[in-house]
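Thread: Acetyltransferase component of pyruvate dehydrogenase complex, structure

OP (GT): Posting the sequence first so everyone is looking at the same thing. Length is 644 residues per the record. Can we get the structure tokens written out before standup tomorrow? I want them in the notebook alongside the other entries.
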Amino acid sequence: MSTEIIRVPDIGGAADVEIIEISVKVGDIIEVDQSIIVLETDKASMDVPSSMAGKVTSISVKEGDKVSEGDELLVIEVESADVSAPASEPAKSAEPASAKTENSSSSASVAAEEKVIVPDIGGAADVEVIEVCVSEGDMVEEGDSLIVLETDKASMDIPSPFSGKIGKISIKVGDTVSEGADILVMVTEAADSAASSETEKSASTPAAEQTPAAVVSGGVESVNVPDIGGAEGVEVIEVAVAAGDTVKEGDSIIVLETDKASMEIPAPKSGTVKSVSISVGDKVSEGHLILELEVEGGSAPVAAPAPAEEKVASASAPKAAPAKASAPAADQSAVLTEPSKKVHAGPAVRMLARELGVDLSLVRPTGPRGRITKEDLHAYVKAAVQKATSAPAAGVAVGSGLPTVPDQDFSKFGDVDVVKMSKIQRLTAQNMVRNALVVPQVTQFDKADISDLEAFRKGLKGEMEKQGVKLTPLPFLIKAVAQAMVANPSFNVSLMADGESYVQKHYVHIGIAVDSPAGLVVPVLRDADKKSVIQIAKEAGELIKKALDKQLKPADMQGGCFTISSLGAIGGTGFTPIVNCPEVGILGVSKADVEPRWNGKEFEPRTMLPLCLSYDHRAVNGGDAGRFMTYLNALLSDVRRLSL
């Protein structure tokens, strides 16, 4: 016997990590890789496995302690491996050599390394890794979560495409990745052992019982909606297959659309579509049946005829009727009567809770070691909604937390029509209410003298039209705003959800509010500070055309730093634009007009452009806004400055 100390292994450089659970006690016999403690950071929880087997003699830590790499955890008694072979060993060694060879060949397996990369994540780029769920050496099954990604809109788990042992991991928490980026290398085992055992089985089967192989189908399988990040009631906007179609693994079968993005659901296997259970416009959630798929099969041995007794038994056995699923009622026990003092939940669950406005201390956990799962969160929300619908409060949208207009019967005053809002109109309304309630907004008004700019623009208008460029005042405004943001970086930030920090951006992407047939949309022109006025005019024109033709993709409307909302020729002398959170500033532009201006000697006509700058007072002070507006006016008043 020898005594060994087990210490905290490499935990990614984290220090002072809290112990939330000790999984063993003194006297326990533990195995290699058995979990001994559970640590939790602000990003993830992790099990610390035992590096050796033995008996626990003492434990050096307790729950609530903070530990770092190298700290002592416990002492175990390790049994020496110097044990003589039993007396029966010679008898075993007397086995025929052929039997040994047969056994070794049947258990042989070939290890193969497979590279796992980031799959299609809806066109998003530079998505942050907020959790790495595995470590080198871990064994995972197909579908187990490998990493968790988080965009500014949602978090998503990336599952393992196959089973195996984790090899080298190429990313860490905090990295940003895009589709195709390397995640890790996985060691899988080829099925040599299965092949050899099949050979042995066929060798031991009498020749009369062996029958030639026949090509069979893989059977009919149900294809359900996979994990879609916890979203419920997601609309089906396209069904890409029909009954009778042949699909390959990975082919798109349906397209779903949330209020943030659209996503394609791929076929999990190759085969023929037998029936489709959903249609365009349906609302689905994880687990909903999409279609029945007759999976492509391979060659399989035809089974020998069953004995007569077995046939009789199978014929007399009654067929079990399929259980008809029914929607379960909301479980009111999912809501705790008193807040929990300790909350254990992963980043994806915490992100979803923030989006739903749920207090996790009131959610009853059912996961391992008292952790809150997404299912617990969904059960809590269903219970809360059911309770609210039984006695809804006037003027409150159930489940949304946002005030609404109380119901009224307008038909008693005259003829009316009830017109359903489009999806974009509904989302715009919700975002406007949310932004108006959340953002402490201030609006500053001014006028810019654009007389020289207009003379310059009109002088180039004919020449630009020959080149296919429509030179309106908008490209000059975008260029001027981009340069003003570089000079005043306080406008190029976004506040963090913790309320204690903000993100300083080093790129300048400008959103352009467009009044499209579908409603108000804001396509984003990227790197406006690095482009000429002509380049901006071309790209802005293309974005506006896509918006008017309803061809914008979710990626075209993401990543904005600042928004310009121009009423242009519509008119008006000013308005108060609402900040498009998480941006901290928006510029409203009204109709330019000719006004008399005193030049020191006389009044002269000048073209004046009304500007309305709204900003989030949590991130931008009045002095910052004043400097921004002064700089912007200087650029617009002297067009030469735009070339500097």
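GT: Both are above now. Quick notes for whoever picks this up: The longest helix spans residues 374-390. The first strand starts at residue 2 and ends at 7.
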